[in-house]
Backbone:
């Protein structure tokens, strides 16, 4: 009788446990990707495709302590992309950032800016 309860309990647990496919992180796909950083953020303008400007994006990447390393280009571009993605952008162009500086609230902060864009189809006129 106890083995029947044990089997029933195992069946309930296995039904409630998510499969490994559900646990696997969803791979995002982008219209275009900067291969160096893995997100669609570019330091230059894109001239081979029409697009509309969604808006300017700004990010500030802080160091945790005075002994932490400076923020990498990859980290800075990911921060810019997070903000542009919330605006519904397909990419960020003209991404720029400077050297980090100490502020009242951090041991070092790197400011970055870029232009969030949305690609247009040939039927959709560019603004």
Residues:
């Amino acid at each position: 009788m106890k083995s029947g309860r044990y089997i029933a309990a195992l069946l309930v647990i296995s039904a409630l446990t998510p499969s490994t496919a559900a646990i696997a992180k969803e791979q995002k796909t982008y219209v275009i990707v900067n291969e160096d950083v893995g997100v669609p953020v570019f330091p230059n303008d894109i001239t081979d495709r029409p697009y509309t400007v969604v808006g300017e994006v700004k990010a500030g990447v802080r160091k945790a302590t005075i002994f932490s390393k400076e923020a990498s280009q990859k980290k800075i571009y990911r921060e810019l992309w997070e903000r542009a993605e919330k605006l519904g952008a397909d990419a960020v162009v003209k991404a720029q950032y400077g050297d980090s500086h100490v502020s009242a609230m951090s041991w070092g902060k790197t400011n970055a800016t870029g232009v969030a864009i949305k690609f247009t189809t040939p039927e959709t006129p560019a603004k």
